[in-house]
């Protein structure tokens, strides 16, 4: 099937404005007759629920945490981009659009990216009005900095907590609507199934994580904003609860999963210290402005780094990429670090780390300056590793950080299942192959505040409100299905814990479907994942009952979904015989290690249709066309 | 290292609770406190026992989900540290550790170490926002905010809503939490129009939820993983008095 992204035709500059005018409206008096279910309360979901509530729709919002304020958007530190051109350095909507298309390695839709750049300016205004304490200069104007290699200063920030502050802004808007009664908030509630009636999304089946009650909520449309799936690797920078579950269950009900193989690996994370580690912590990439990456030249050299003389160190980034050196792009720096370790020259416990050395910078500008620039990061590092990075090099290792694939959506953020809308990291749009810094926060809020309120009306206007009631056979069936699925998990009573399975899956994924993949490694993963999945369903041990607070059962369901999703991710990576941004196939690289794209054969979105757990999924394509930014090789040289 | 844990176990809000003893063996000093508990749980599961339920999510000290009173101190007593960022190297081989849930009237226990912090939500819903509609707001630079005000607001905005301040307070007061939001919005031009209404509504919500009052013990500030200063409580009181005279 050739998928239609429904992008507006004609000049890109007016595409969103024209489209917005063409969208149908819902009469203000009728809005309250419609109920919208919003799953996830991060930047995208929180903003969407608040905005739809403000407009007068009847909204029910769901999150698995105890408060909407705890969504993982909160942990995004760096900043949020907007094309305000406040610093007068030549930024414009067009330039932000252009940078993002190129940064996405020409694997995102032009129209979507244009809209993102256009509404980015509204986002800043909105957040300022909410009282988000962005950095200001002494005159009281908003301050900007440059981020992620951009040549203009377009990043707005609130200390190192931009994500937290933006989320609290959205959460405050949401709280206001809860008080006003337009939004009903269901915390500690996890979506476990999508209810589809006559081909349209009309409800969700959830589990109350406190009582264990399984019930269906019906609505006129469903909005998924449930974040990303990189916890499929087990160790990642994501929060523990981040999962693919809501997306995957919707996928099983017909929603296409697009580009799952695109994941971003962040190069500067604190390495794993042992087998029982639960997650990885990201350190700001800005550290590489002053830190020099090196590994010992000799294999297995376990001397203290300060005892290794200069001539026995390999400053591998400076050697391999002389023009960019330590500031090589994320994907290149990540792969280079892993290569050192795979070659037996890694440092620290398990040899999974490289040195990030500040001694030269300290000699050059003094410890005081380094402390001013990165002090909080050095403190955080010391807390976790017990090492003083002013006295010896930091250890760094790449970690899975962000998903750029997700459920397929058209220009209206609507999936191929009518009535199912997907926002933020949960959808595939905008980011394409390689996300640039400071753009994830932008997408979440753009979708939630400024896209969905318009596009969902177009669907609702054509829909009879309240058509499906809670006693509909599909709802009953969904509840029964979820109950029996959970009971199956509870009754296996095997020998291995859920975490043991997750760790095993993570190893397969990281080694075979991680930052560098080959045909061989992917085929190996595709062979091994179903074997592990089979073992899981025979040998997992989930204690307790379904009708109570049961964290093991929650985890078991999430890992069961990862065990299915991981296979699709590997299949997607195998079919895409090219490298682009975050997707790197070792067979497809330039002589200098840059990703080698194949625009002739792969300039499309790959969207997969679910056919059954042990059946081959079907690939559908949405061709991508570039009329405004011409296809060109991405070069950071 | 090997540790002896005494952990509060309670199967539900109405059920009686008690401290139960567990051994944590071969704990690595590099593990975080929660990772140590993960491992204890893995053993419990294999023995067919109910693992210890506790709240956690981001495990990098920012989401505010984790909540444990360790040896009598919320988040374990290391300065400016959430329990997920507390590492086992702060303990010694052979130590005995007491682990309990947040204790406050307004935070009923759900299970083991998990409490219901919905009362904090009620305070936010009472007025912790500016009533601006999405879209149609002025350009971000149209409202000037002096850097000093922006920095002050930012200091207050750092609160992660974990509730340690409540758990640490002998009165079970949520005034540090509430004051942080009141002070943030009172310091900014955006929050001015509703300042009086906000402080009254949020104070009322605080009382309704069953939180106690501040009597200047400063335990909240000591327990706060983000270092929120008690000066914001003074600001809360001042804003409240100002509102009463309006």
Q: Any key phrases for this structure?
A:
heterodimer; A: 637 residues; alpha+beta; 5-stranded parallel β-sheet; 5-stranded antiparallel β-sheet; 17 helices; globular; B: 246 residues; 5-stranded mixed β-sheet; two-stranded antiparallel sheet; 8 helices; 7 strands
* Largest β-sheet summary of chain A: 5 strands, parallel
Q: What structural class should be given to the helix and strand makeup of chain A?
A: alpha+beta
- Range of strand content of chain B: 5-15%
Portion of residues in helices of chain B? 25-40%
Largest interface: A-B, 81 and 76 residues
Number of helices of chain B: 8
Structural category of chain B is alpha+beta
Average residue-wise pLDDT of chain A: 95
Low-pLDDT residue spans of chain B: none
| Termini separation of chain A | 39 Å
| Helix/strand order of chain B, N-terminal first | EEHEEEEEHHHHHHH
The end-to-end span of chain B amounts to: 61 Å
Cα Rg of chain A = 24 Å
Which percent bin holds the helix content of chain A?
25-40%
Strand order of the largest sheet of chain B: 2-1-5-3-4
Principal-axis shape of chain A: globular
What is the tally of beta strands of chain A? 19
Mean pLDDT of chain B: 97
Structure description:
Chain A: Residues 36-441 form the FAD-dependent oxidoreductase 2 FAD-binding domain. Chain A has helices at 15-22, 28-31, 43-55, 93-103, 110-130, 162-180, 245-252, 316-320, 330-342, 359-365, 367-385, 440-460, 473-492, 498-513, 519-539, 551-575, 599-602; strands at 35-39, 58-62, 80-81, 155-156, 183-186, 189-197, 200-208, 214-218, 221-224, 257-258, 263-269, 292-296, 313-314, 354-357, 394-403, 406-407, 420-422, 604-609, 618-623. Helix content of chain A is 37%, strand content 14%. Chain A is of the alpha+beta class and 637 residues long. Chain A has a five-stranded parallel sheet. The longest helix of chain A is centred in the last third of the chain and has 25 residues, at 551-575. With 246 residues, chain B is α+β, with helices and mostly antiparallel strands. Helices cover 35% and strands 11% of the residues of chain B. Chain B contains eight helices and seven strands. In chain B, the strands form two sheets. A five-stranded mixed sheet of chain B has the order 2-1-5-3-4. In chain B, strands 6-7 form a two-stranded antiparallel ribbon. The interface between A and B is large, with 81 and 76 residues.
